[in-house]
Amino acid sequence: MRPEQERLSDAVLRRSSRRGFLEWAGAAVIALAGGRAVANGLLQDDAEAAYTNFCGHTYTTGNCPHPTGLPRVDRHDYPLRASDGHPVDDLGRPIDSQGYPVNAQGQVLRDANGEPLAPAPRSKVCPAAGRAHGLELRTDGSWYRCCGGRVRRLMDCCGYTNVRVNGDEALVGYCYAGRHVFCVQYYETMVPC
Amino acid sequence: MLGGLAAAAAITALIAGIAGAWSPCGFSMVDTIGGALGNARRGATLVACATFALGTLAGGALTFGSLALLGSLAGHGVAGLREGLGAALALAAAIADWRGVRIAPQIRRQVPERWRWTLPLPLACALYGVLLGLGFTTFVLAFAVWALAGISFAAGDPLLGVLVGLAFGAGRALPVLWMAPGLREDGSGARRLEEMAREPRLWLGLRRLDALGLGLCALALAGVSAGAQPLAPATDPSAAAGALAWQQPGGSGLLSQGGSAPLALPGSHPALGGANVAWATPAQVVVADRATLQPKLALAVAGVSALAVSDGWVVYRDDDAQGERLIAVSLADPAQRRYLAGSRLAGQVSRPALDSSSVVFALDTPRRSELVLVDLATGRRRVLRQARRDAAYFNPSLLGGQVLFERVTRCVQQLRIAGLGRRGGRVLLSLPSTVARDPGYQRGYTHAYNSASGCRNRRPGRGGSTLLGATALSASGAYVTKLGPGPGDAAIVSVAR
Questions:
Q1: How many CB atoms neighbour CB B159 within 10 A?
Q2: Which residues are paired to B399 by β-bridges?
Q3: Cis ω for the linkage preceding B233 (within 30 of 0)
Q4: What are the pLDDT digits (tens) for B361-395?
Q5: Rounded to an integer, what distance in angstroms lies between the CA atom of residue B134 and that of residue B132?
Q6: Rounded Cα gap, residues B235 and B417, in angstroms
Q7: Residue A62: which domain range?
């Protein structure tokens, strides 16, 4: 997608909700495509679209700050390592169920005396992004897309702010009650697609 | 060590700044500020003096502070190398200034003369001050200026850089403040200016003073460089008055006093404090006289995994199936034991550090990370630092009202030192985080908006291979354990404080 197109699409979203826009776009596509789309009965998943940063994320809002980079979270909004879904603490260290850092084999890491390395805080990604920017943020609505053979839930981290993590104007996205999207994250379901 | 370096560098910078008065710009400034408006507007002359001085201070702080900041960003990848190069540079400049060698490379430029005519005098003088304070925009009158730039970079401490810059700026301003106000009024300034112009030997004398200062800087930096040689394999340092004790991974404790060869202690987890040394055996904690190693006290405690000692207290951490506990025992009354902290799981209570009757330790859980200070005399407990997200505090040490600790985030591991009542703290050592990080985007997708997921100090990938471990603090420096990927890859390095 070219920058001009991105800006245009952002502008459209600023004037309406993303759901409304997608519904409108979907309806337009179906109308234009006529019988074929209707025959399929579904709006094609736009897996080939030019997503931003990671599969499934449309438009330009940036990632929520995440310990290891890509903003993958578990169902409770705690951070996971994107490559394999391993839980990580706020320092980005892979951890076990009790919060202790572990190595690639899942064994607790130890210091030179054999003592376990100390745990570190593990916090929910969206609220933590808010606290880091002086905002109260929460995950509102979501959208699901097929990515890499599994259904992925795209989650907007929303708050009462007109500025997003990128530093420019925030969009409505999937946010409710006047909130806007501050940053985005995703949850990988186990559902094949 | 950095305190001595800072003092020597600041005095050298002040003198180097004063020596700059013998430059074409130095003379021009006195005449511009003191002579342009004459007696009729003495007030304007004084204002111009003030703005000039502010400009020199700002310029100096900018140049040397920036160089020190660059030095701090350059990291400590090669222990002692940077300090060694800085010492060599200072020594070479000292010899050159002592012998009065012609300055090279010379910057044959002057401040813009037209500002004197086109700008209000206070503004022009402020800008002149900035240019002269910057140091390298006009003639350089001592090798010390070049050497101080190198020293600021080598020290890698922005505070030291700013201090040197302010001293240099003050040195550049002082001759002007001394001569300009009296240049027209009573002629005293004119006489001083004339004497200065006729007496270059004074300038050469100042360069010799600079040479002495640079020699002191070289000594201080060489000391840091020599002390930066790592001690390996070693972990869990403990320091007190010229002595250092440490633990050999999988072995006993070692003690080195006054730079002597290490002496094996009859136990592990050694700790130093006041006149005492303590170690742990499988069934006891032993407190002994540091000079003679004669035991003073033996406590029946099993499973000790960490120790701290002072003249009045010993604090130990013991582990068993129920978890770990941190216990303080009064040496005067060993029956008096105080529970300080504990955890059902091992690894959440850090190794303690004692200074007199104050003990500091870290408590780290998945919910929060905090540094705790307990006054054993009063029982008062104080949280020095706390993080509930994004950061963790590890491995504190304590001495003379200053706490040394590690602050670790997803991007960086920092060794910091701060006063007990202060926030933040000065960074002594900074290493990239050891965790693997992805680039914040999936390959094949647009990735223009992922800055929030990046780390400015490191690239995506596996991360650093060195993990910061246990620390110790002494009057002359800080010690930190660097842990490598293997169990035996543990080394203690000293860092200038």
A1: 14
A2: B402
A3: yes
A4: 999 999 999 999 999 999 999 999 999 989 999 99
A5: 5
A6: 20
A7: 3-68+125-192
Residue A138 lies in a domain: yes
Residue B486 at interface with chain A, using a CB cutoff of 8 Å:
no
Nearest partner of A159 among A135, A143, A185, judged by Cα: A135
Residues of A (162-191) whose Cβ lies below 8 Å from B: 165-166, 183
Cβ-contact B316, B327 below 8 angstroms: yes
- Tell me which H or E stretch contains A7: helix A3-15
d(CA B291, CA A61): 65
Instruction: Supply the DSSP string of B167-188, one letter for each residue.
Output: HHHHHHHHHHHHHGGGTTTTSH
Strand order in the sheet with B243-247: B235-240, B243-247, B253-257, B263-264
Q: Are B179 and B192 in contact (CB under 8 A)?
A: yes
The shortest C-alpha distance from A190 to chain B (Å) reads: 19
User: CB of B155 within 8 A of CB of B163?
Assistant: no
Number of domains making up chain A: 1
pLDDT of residue B283: 92
Q: From the CB of residue B28, how many other CB atoms can be counted at a distance below 10 Å?
A: 17
Q: pLDDT tens digit string along B451-474? A: 677 788 888 888 888 999 999 998
Residue of B nearest to A1 (CA): B446
Q: Tell me whether residue A57 is in a domain.
A: yes
- pLDDT at residue number B355: 94
User: Is the Cβ of A126 closer than 8 Å to some Cβ of chain B?
Assistant: no
Least CB-CB distance to A121: which of B368, B445, B448?
B368
Is B305 an interface residue toward A (CB < 8 Å)? Answer: yes
- Residue B88 CB neighbour total at 10 angstroms: 16
What's the Cα-to-Cα distance from A149 to each of A41, A85, B438, rounded to whole Å? 21, 15, 21
Which residue has 């006289």 as its token pair? B289
pLDDT, tens only, A18-45: 444 444 444 444 444 444 444 343 444 4
What residues contact residue B138 under an 8 Å CB cut-off, 6+ apart?
A: B23, B24, B25, B107, B109, B110, B111, B131, B132
Q: How far apart are CA B366 and CA B409, in angstroms?
A: 14
Gap between the Cα atoms of B497 and B494, Å rounded: 9
Residue type, B111: V
In a domain, A161, yes or no: yes
d(CA B32, CA B331): 70
Q: Three-state DSSP class for A76?
A: coil
Our CA angle for B217, B222, B228, nearest 5°, is 130
Q: What angle do CA B487, B490, B493 make, to 5 degrees?
A: 170
Q: Does A66 touch chain B (CB under 8 A)?
A: yes
Tokens of B262: 């290490």
Q: DSSP string covering A64-75, please?
A: PP-TTSS-BB-T
* DSSP-assigned states of every residue in B240-277: ETTEEEEE-TTS-EEEEETTPPPEE-SSEEEEEETTEE
CA atoms lying within 13 Å on the CB side of residue B1: 26
Q: Go through the domains of chain B in sequence order and give each one's CATH number.
A: 2-227 (no CATH), 235-496 (2.120.10.30)
Residue B267: the pLDDT is 94
- Read off the pTM: 0.67
